[in-house]
Amino acid sequence: MILLFDLDGTLIDSTEAILESFHNSFNVLNYPHPKDDDIKALIGYPLDIMYANLGIEEQMVDTFVQTYKAHYRKISTQKTVLLKNAKESIVEASKIAKLGIVTTKTGRYSEVLLEHFGIMNYFDVLVGREHVQNPKPDAEPILKALESFDTTDEEIFMIGDTKLDLISAKNAGVKSIAVLSGYDNEAMLRNYTDLVFSDTLSAINYLKSRKKPHI
């Protein structure tokens, strides 16, 4: 089995760091601030898409993104936490599957966070925003991650907390599992998968409890 995990809302909660970094960019560039709820509604999308949807004109988006990243890398480890049961779920998942990370976060910042939490060693591959041309919901990030595995006769799942993860899985031709620990609600997630669990540990326990699938 191969299990690919999203990060924000699936394994980690970096909402505080994300919101602070967004507001810092609006401070530095002297733009009116968006509401927190409007920012949170876009978490999961790449930063450039988030800023564009918050009304930043195209020629300024990259400046906002760079300002965001400069602040985020200073505070990310202090203002990010592992979600409840996340580490246990990764340990248990590693007993039944090969693991990877597929995120729209910048890969090098994601790796720093995972090293900080002592869990990077469980993952065979990490695909971040800079590693692909087309981020989730495109299939490319998942397909890129799968290049690191022998997928012959393997059951493959993408585990995430937003519709972007689930649509990406469908586009890549792999199965999906949704968790309710993040940003999209259950009604939204059930539009894209029948497998919806409270958190990643519940999802892994479900996978462990199944009989070995016939392939």
Please render the helix and strand layout as text:
Layout: E1 2-5, E2 12-13, H1 15-28, H2 36-40, H3 47-53, H4 58-75, E3 81-82, H5 86-94, E4 98-102, H6 107-116, E5 125-127, H7 140-146, E6 156-160, H8 163-172, E7 175-179, H9 186-189, E8 196-197, H10 200-209
Parallel strand pairs: 1-4, 1-6, 4-5, 6-7, 7-8
Antiparallel strand pairs: 2-3
Helix pairs in contact: 1-4, 3-4, 5-10
Structural commentary:
The chain is an alpha/beta fold and 215 residues long. The protein has 2 domains: 2-13 and 81-209, HAD superfamily/HAD-like (Rossmann fold, 3-Layer(aba) Sandwich); 15-75, DNA polymerase, domain 1 (Orthogonal Bundle). It has helices at residues 15-28, 36-40, 47-53, 58-75, 86-94, 107-116, 140-146, 163-172, 186-189, 200-209; strands at residues 2-5, 12-13, 81-82, 98-102, 125-127, 156-160, 175-179, 196-197. The strands form 2 sheets. Strands 5-4-1-6-7-8 form a 6-stranded parallel sheet, sandwiched between helices. Strand 7, helix 9 (186-189) and strand 8 (196-197) form a beta-alpha-beta unit. Helix 3 packs across helix 4. The relative contact order is 0.18. The model has no long low-confidence stretch (mean pLDDT 94).
Q: Give the fraction of residues assigned to helices.
A: 40-55%
Main beta-sheet strand count, sense and barrel state: 6 strands, parallel
* Count of structural domains: 2
Regarding CATH, which class of the largest domain? Alpha Beta
Number of strands: 8
Structural Rg = 17 Å
Side-by-side strand order of the widest sheet = 5-4-1-6-7-8
Write down the overall mean pLDDT: 94
Quickly count the helices: 10
> Strand content of the residues, in percent?
5-15%
How many angstroms separate the termini?
Answer: 11 Å
Could you give me the name of the CATH homologous superfamily of the largest domain?
HAD superfamily/HAD-like
* CATH topology term of the largest domain: Rossmann fold
Reported CATH architecture of the largest domain: 3-Layer(aba) Sandwich
Structural class estimated from helices and strands = alpha/beta
List segments where confidence is low: pLDDT < 50 over at least 5 consecutive residues. Answer: none
